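PROTEIN–LIGAND DATA SHEET

This sheet pairs a single protein chain with one bound small molecule, fe (ii) ion, given as SMILES. Inputs appear in the order they were entered. The predicted three-dimensional arrangement of chain and ligand is reported afterwards as a token string under its own label.
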Amino acid sequence: MMPDLRLILSLSLLEGLTACYGCGPTETRDFTLEETFSRGEMEGILEEEARMTQGEDYMDALSYASNHCRELCGWVWDAQTDTGMEVSEMVSCQATVDLEADTIHVACRGEVSTIQDCKEGRRPLGHVDPPTDLSRLGPYLALCAQLEAVSVTAFQELAQQLVAWGAPSALIQRCLEAAEDEERHAAAISTLALAEGCPPQRPQRRPAPCNLYAVALHNAVEGCVGETWAALLAGWKAHNARTPELRAAYARIAPEEAAHAQLAWDLHAWLRARLPEPQRHELDEALAAELRSLVQRAPALLRALPAALGLPDAVGAEALARGLVSRLAA
Ligand SMILES: [Fe+2]
Ligand SMILES: [Fe+2]
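PREDICTION REPORTED AS:
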């Protein structure tokens, strides 16, 4: 049986709000990064960061990169939390080129503070989040506005895929309605971001497979977990955000996000039923892993976000995620 998301979200929100959690400060800690990249990997990184265009001399780009490491390595992947973290201070950075092996060895030390992982909206397959200082309200809202805007694309693409796979017209219609909701969300959050002087950036995408299994996997992670968590947080922000403008925007968004989360779970059931048994099993495992990961990462995810959102502290974040996940499992 599919979970009743409206009930689950209401119960989780009520439990969290009545517990009166505090709002936690942002923490920083040291990081070290030591890695050897092949020429191909480094060229990929440089191109992605727009530090090298095709045909440009690799050594010139590399010399630029090693002299502007702080700028280039704006964030690092953190194994402890399995997320990207903002580099707030670079203590040392050394890039050594081995011409014979055609590799570059990078060794950096510094301090990280902000987690680069924002569970808002529904990313289309292959979407790449821009590096963002999530601790500041303006950049956070600009990223959210971008994620709301790309959610329009995500739902439109999903509707087309469902048509091609012969899905029930009700599911297709709900995707198209969700796309319309996301257009309003994008406009509302964009207005808030612009008021903070931060226009949303243009979205970027990588090529990604879009077969039924890839879409089911993406829906489980981005929809069932991501949108359900985002819907719960939207409800929280509607109550606790520090400004009336934020509260009003999230009060309008929250019930629609709850409907999108319900849609993700209903899509999950339909897509899962069309997969062969081994892929069904992999899908179940991936969903369970993402739910476990949400509980583990919830404190760090929320700690990274602006205080103006009035989100719960580490204890509250974990309790909120744990309550949600246990209700979903039940
Ligand atoms: Fe949205
Ligand atoms: Fe949504």
